[in-house]
Amino acid sequence: MIAIAVMVIYFLFSMPRIRLFVHRLALHSRRPRVILIGDEIFTKVGGYVLGNFLTSVIAGMGTCIWLVVFGVPYPVLLGMMVALSGLIPAIGAYVGGAVVSLVALTVSLPVAVATLGFYTGYKLGEDYFIVPRVMSRTVQLPAVVPLVAVLIRGALMGIAGALAAIPAAAAIRLFLREVVFRRLDAD
Q: Which of 29, 57, 82, 174 is deepest in the core (most CB within 10 A)?
């Protein structure tokens, strides 16, 4: 985990040089267009990260409220843990929900079962209502595209596919709009 964090930091600091290198791989006559499309793809990926952050904050706040209402100890700490684990796509919310349900077991079995039910319902609501709406605004995709992209890529490629689904869908849509449709319209 620490190695991944260090690699991300190095990657972020090296981003300007990496982008320059990728831009130089394009033909000189096509370079301005490659730069434009590349910048848009980076914007979409940034929107995806922002959307993931927002859905994680919503999950953390919902958890905190739930835990306060039912008298589960450490509601703020557990809410923050759920928000942080929610940043891990595909499995983070499940891990957070399991930990909170186990802590709720210290209060009583009915509260733990209700908390597990809350997480099951919340996760369904998040997957089918919150994520498509948030991602449609932050990545600027139609609301159905993130939902379909996650379902298809998750089924085909598992967790790694679900992780890359929304940025890939945004990049494919951008490629179609900027390259394929322009060529088709020109003919």
A: 82
| Per-residue DSSP letter, 171 | H
Quick one: pLDDT band at residue 106, thresholds 50, 70, 90? very high
Q: Is the pLDDT of residue 148 over 90?
A: no
Tell me the three-class secondary structure of 34-88, residue by residue. HHHHHHHHHHHHHHHHHHHHHHHHHHHHHHHHHHHHHCCCCHHHHHHHHHHHCCC
What gap in Å lies between CA 108 and CA 62, rounded to an integer?
A: 20
More confident residue, 169 or 125: 125
b/e per residue, 110-145, with b = 16+ CB within 10 A? ebbebbbebbeebbeebbeebbbebbbebbebeeeb
Q: Taking the complete model, does pTM exceed 0.90, yes or no? A: no
Structure tokens at 53: 């952050």
What is d(CA 142, CA 120) in angstroms, rounded to the nearest whole number?
Answer: 26
